[in-house]
Specification:
By secondary structure, the protein is α/β, with parallel strands linked by helices. The chain contains 6 helices and 11 strands. Strands 6-5-4-7-8-11-10 form a 7-stranded mixed beta sheet, covered by helices on one side. Strands 1-9 form a two-stranded antiparallel ribbon. The chain is globular.
């Protein structure tokens, strides 16, 4: 596992609303401030970058291909809700979107085909909520190893039969990459590069090991044409 750092997202500079901190990970308050800036810059899904939307629409189609006949699904960490919005156009079942930030999924609230719940999994869910399928997209980076194992254990024991992670944060531990990463890390620690600690990246093996620590044995993984990694875990 390695640390990942960022300074901007959707063209919004983090230092425009928060002081960059290379040792403290972006928290819920940080994301709330970010989404306040996000919704000042963008006013609908139509205004988001075209290439970004095309890639996320493809992910919605990929997720849909794994749902099959399931009538109720759960999205854990929906963010701005674009994938859920696209999925609602092609999926006839019930979509429940769970998002910790109260400001992130503003546009999704108007979609009658998606039930948006603010809070954390599984505490924010009603005890009668049952799901055969759940997915997370571009969310694993926020977890250190301990919290990553814990969330996967919770998903497995909920129980949820099938779990799909799409947009898994990966890195290739080649000598060239490791050297560049080490130099960058030193520059950040010395204060020559101002960065925000964003989260963590892992190799495929590190991801697989964590899934196995969480109790999963039936795993599949792959890479989409655009380079997006995915991992699917099935409860036995």
């Amino acid at each position: 596992m390695i640390k990942m750092f960022e300074t901007t997202w959707f063209g919004i500079n983090f230092n425009s609303f928060s002081e960059l901190n290379s040792s403290k990970q972006a928290n819920e308050s940080f994301y709330d401030l970010f989404y306040q800036a996000f919704y000042k810059k963008f006013h609908s899904y139509d205004e988001l970058p075209k290439a970004w939307k095309e890639q996320k629409s493809s992910l919605a189609t990929f997720i849909h291909s794994h749902i099959k006949s399931k009538t109720s699904i759960l999205s854990i960490g929906s963010g701005n809700g674009y994938i859920e919005n696209e999925l609602s156009k092609i999926y006839n079942g019930t979509i429940t979107a769970l998002e910790p930030s109260k400001t992130a999924s503003l546009w999704l609230k108007s979609n009658p085909k998606v039930t948006l719940i603010n809070g954390y999994f599984p505490d924010a869910l009603h005890q009668n909520n049952q799901f055969k399928f759940a997915y997370m997209s571009y969310t694993d980076y926020v977890f250190d190893d301990t919290s990553y194992v814990n969330i996967l254990k919770t998903i497995k024991n909920y129980p949820i039969d099938e779990f799909l992670l799409v947009g898994a944060s990966m890195y290739d531990p080649s000598p060239k990459f490791c050297m560049k990463y080490f130099i960058r890390l030193v520059l950040i620690q010395l204060g020559f590069l101002k960065k925000q600690l964003w989260g963590y990246q892992r190799t495929l093996k590190e991801h697989t090991d964590i899934f196995q620590k969480a109790g999963y044995r039936n795993l599949q993984s792959g890479q989409l044409a655009d380079g997006t990694y995915w991992i699917k875990a099935t409860n036995e």
